[in-house]
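Retro notes, structure queue

What went well: the backlog is down to a handful. What didn't: a couple of records were mislabeled last round, so from now on we paste the full input next to the output in the thread. Example, using Crp/Fnr family transcriptional regulator from Sphingobium naphthae:
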Amino acid sequence: MPSDHPHPAGRCAVCAVRDSAFCATFAEPELAALRAIGRRRTLPAGQIVVSAGDPASFCANLVSGVLKVVREEHDGRTQIVGLLFPGDLVGEPFVEEARDTLVALTEIDLCLYPRQPLETLLTHHPAATHLLLRRALATLAEARKWMLMLGRRQAPEKIAAFLLDMERRLEPAAGGGYHLPMGRAAMGEVLGLTIETVSRQLSAMKRAGMIALPSRRHILLLDRPKLAQIAG
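Corresponding output:
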């Protein structure tokens, strides 16, 4: 179940995404106004954050965890069209209805803001509005790239592209590489592959010297040119 908490003043000072979230352009007076309307919400993996067609009642900063963006096609099928990572904006200001379904792929931590009070705040802070527009365009580009990746028919191409993309999006781990924020079952769900196929492909790439797996979620990319060649 959702767990909401007040937005404490000290949270911004220690926030891991303070320099990358939309509030990065806010000075302390604007941050105080943002905190006044905000709540902290934690959700478990598998929780639907918002469903397509729901009223767009809030926006949020994703502080930790990963969300999947699910779109329903005209024939009723659903497709994952992207992932949201820490620092990304959840929801859209200045729209009345959610366009996609957002589901927590891992446990997530959000700074949640009611949409209308947030819109009022943004109208008095053009720099933040400009940053949100840039983020929206970047998110659209990511969605297009994601759909292209999922459209590939071969599992090695999907896995290679995914590993390279995660290196770009995730924080480096101690000792090099990065830690996947999801297990292999969730990775398979995202890529449209079975957990067996994911495990088999990772093992094959490890034997070929393209990656190292110090642990199940710790990934080291040893041969990026080869991975990029496979990814296409």
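Agreed that this is the format going forward. Reviewer comment attached to the example: The mean pLDDT is 84.
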